[in-house]
Specification:
By secondary structure, chain A is an all-alpha fold. Chain A contains 16 helices and no strands. Chain B is built from nine helices and no strands. The chains are: A mainly alpha, B mainly alpha. Chains A and B meet through helix 1, helix 2, helix 3, helix 9 and helix 14 of A and helix 1, helix 2, helix 3, helix 4 and helix 5 of B.
């Protein structure tokens, strides 16, 4: 570890400095999620209307180098097929369709299927291709999308602040060169399959402090609200209110407001919906949901 | 009560774009596995990594229009660091992390090599858990995620020289921990020492 000409340049820890630590670091660099876990994550994100897959996207170099992730595209494809199949027979209210449509038009229209599926209580069966695999492990892969679980059994969710990300315009950005690790892809290719960190087999939080576990998670509340939107807009609205009380600075305030506005519109409370739309646009002037909210207000 | 009493989201400024902003799909495909791993290194139990990755991607989706196109990895890992930090600060989660730090029982079907690798990972995580958070973040991003100093600086919002010092200090502390005779035994309170 010797600084080069630039006084603020460091070389990474080498095996000659500390063989065991370097070995542990090397092993850690080979860790990562299993393909099925990534696919389940992709399916969850797709179900939320986030366009995380694209047929036009070139196969990423990183994934090409990860042998264990070769199944990734296939698994996501299977998830999408499942989503597409599940749309048959499901009815969507216009409001919900608007709510769940992706912010940007999907080239393959897959989001329409996803939007329809979101109201299905069996979502996980369709969107989680890795569910069979993950069922053998106490992974959280499907917990967030498993409506049959009571809230108390779900994972707790942190309450991040909305401005969690560093500002894109931070002073540090200007002196930050665009760079990638030259060894990264080659290293991944050489080391082969990523292996997941084995989740703890211990059951989740059972103990004297179980009362705090009863607090529903952000994801759980909003999922329930979304599921209730079609059958009981009033209940959906109540759930969004509960979310607002529990997570006033929650990371999903925008999603909550979308559901609340949809519920108000479904209940015929147009003026309340319009008022809330105005609040939304004031609070989130650059929201990716802007178009959806605008449509709801019409 | 207004719907957004405490939300502090500033309007995005029109940032000068210096490079093409990638799509969310590209970010997911190229960075999600690494952010997942980084979460583990930053003290998130494996069982919660997927939920937090989901949260990261939602944040990325929402804030992508504000990305200035300069340092994508620094920007992404900044989100990752903040999400992990918020997670660790949750009192309820903190208790669970402590319980998660207990050694896991090995599956009888695991080959010896797998067990050895898992042991090495546990050793590393145990050592990381003894670092304070700023050092841990800097060390993980630099040594495991292989970000440049500038990218780490961007991710943590600290000057490069500060990041440099944190990495050096963390490295020395980790080396000392690995030389200690009993460093291979993760204790129940490992994580608490990292807070």
């Amino acid at each position: 570890m010797q600084p080069d000409k630039d006084p603020w340049q460091l070389e990474r820890l080498s095996a000659s400095e500390d063989p065991e630590l370097a070995r542990c670091l090397g092993i850690m660099k080979q860790q990562g999620p299993e393909a099925s876990q990534l696919a389940a994550l992709a399916a969850q994100l797709l179900a939320q209307g986030l366009p995380v897959t694209s047929g036009a996207t070139a196969a990423p170099l990183v994934l090409r180098g990860m042998a264990s992730l070769r199944k990734y595209s296939l698994l996501v494809g299977v998830a999408l097929v499942g989503l597409g199949g599940a749309i048959i027979g499901l009815r969507q209210s216009r409001v919900e369709h608007r709510l769940l449509a992706p912010p940007a038009a999907a080239p393959d229209g897959s989001h329409e299927s996803i939007a329809s599926l979101r109201s299905s209580p069996n979502l996980r069966e369709h969107v989680s291709p890795g569910s069979a695999n993950s069922s053998a492990k106490p992974s959280t892969a499907g917990i967030a999308s498993s409506p049959e679980l009571p809230d108390a059994t779900r994972e707790p969710f942190a309450e991040p602040t909305i401005n969690a990300a560093p500002s894109a315009g931070t002073p540090g950005a200007s002196r930050t060169p665009t760079s990638t690790s030259p060894t990264r892809s080659a290293q991944e290719a050489a080391t082969g399959a990523l292996k997941t960190l084995r989740p703890s087999p211990r059951p989740i939080s059972s103990g004297p402090e179980s009362s705090s576990v009863a607090r529903p998670s952000e994801l759980g509340l909003l999922r329930d609200a979304r599921l209730a939107l079609h059958s009981s807009p009033a209940q959906a609205l109540a759930l969004t209110e509960q979310h607002r009380m529990l997570y006033p600075r929650g990371a999903m305030a925008q999603e909550r407001e979308l559901i609340a506005i949809s519920a108000l519109a479904s209940m015929g409370r147009r003026s309340a919906a319009l008022s809330r739309v105005a609040e939304f646009e004031r609070a989130f002037p650059n929201s990716p949901y802007h178009n959806q909210v605008t449509q709801l207000a019409r | 009560m207004p719907p957004f009493p405490e939300v502090d989201e500033r309007p995005a400024e029109a940032a000068p774009t210096t490079a093409a902003i990638p799509s969310l799909a590209q970010i997911f495909e190229q960075h999600a596995p690494f952010m997942w791993r980084a979460l583990i290194g930053l003290g998130v139990p494996a069982r919660d990594a997927q939920d937090l990755c989901q949260e990261i991607m939602i944040t990325v989706h929402r804030r992508l229009p504000q990305f200035d196109g300069v340092s994508l990895r620094g920007w992404l890992y900044g989100i990752c660091v903040r999400v992990a930090s918020d997670y660790r600060r949750s009192a309820r989660v903190r208790r669970e992390i402590v319980s998660d730090a207990q050694p896991e029982e090995a599956s009888a079907t695991d080959p010896a090599d797998t067990l050895d690798r898992e042991r090495q990972v546990r050793l590393l995580l145990s050592g990381l858990s003894r670092l304070d958070e700023p050092k841990r973040v800097a060390f993980v991003l630099f040594e495991i995620e292989e970000l440049t100093l500038a990218e780490v600086s961007e991710a943590v919002g600290a000057p490069i020289q500060t990041v440099y010092s944190r990495i050096k200090a963390a490295r020395e502390q980790m080396q000392r921990a690995f030389r200690a005779p009993a460093h291979g035994t993760p204790a129940k309170g490992d994580i608490s020492a990292a807070r």
